[in-house]
Amino acid sequence: MILLKRLFLFIIIVLFACISCGGFLDKDISSKSLDINALFDTILSRPILPSDDISSNTICTDYSRQGLLIIRYNNKMNTNYKFKLQVIKDENTINYNIKGNGLMEKFPLQYGDGKYTARILKNIRDDEYISIDEKVFWVQLDNQNIVFLNSVQNIDWDYSMAPRYISCLE
To answer: For the segment 107-152, what is each residue's pLDDT rounded down to a tens digit?
Structure first.
């Protein structure tokens, strides 16, 4: 009897979750895509995506007003070293893995306005790294929320990509 009650409760929760996220009864994806596009067009100002012709600097801050740091580090020695980007602002430090292949990699400046330090680090052994490039710069964001809309290293997108509607049942 207890097992039957638990199963019934589970089914009710799943049905409620599917209905509340909007994909249970309505499968018209095109109208939902239009609604999403309208939301982005009217409520959110779109960030300016960097072109491929950005500064040749290893640490490019040309888009810092949009909350974006661009790294273009090229490991010309073709060694098996690991590389990291370290971003520091006040007492906040975050480390990202970077490829070191010379291609543009984008990272968020998520700690708001102020003085940042960006460092390219090279792994020399175990968990020891040395700084091979560093840049100190000031950030004055155009909009405090724009940083969360950027295309970044692990969420790469551009405006040619259509938004997707994902149903609970997919």
So the answer is: 989 999 999 999 999 998 898 999 999 999 999 998 888 777 776 6
Per-domain residue ranges for the chain?
Answer: 59-149
23 contact partners, CB below 8 Å, separation of at least 6: 165, 166, 167, 168, 169, 170
Q: Which residues of 67-96 are buried (b: 16+ CB within 10 A; e: fewer)?
A: bbbbbbbebeeeeeeebebbbbbeeeeeeb
Nearest to 70 by CA among 83, 82, 52: 52
Tell which CATH classification among 3.40.190.10, 2.60.40.10, 3.40.30.10, 3.40.630.10 matches the domain 59-149.
2.60.40.10
Of 24, 115, 116, nearest to 107 by C-alpha is 116
Looking at the whole model, is its pTM more than 0.70? no
Looking at residue 95, its amino acid is N
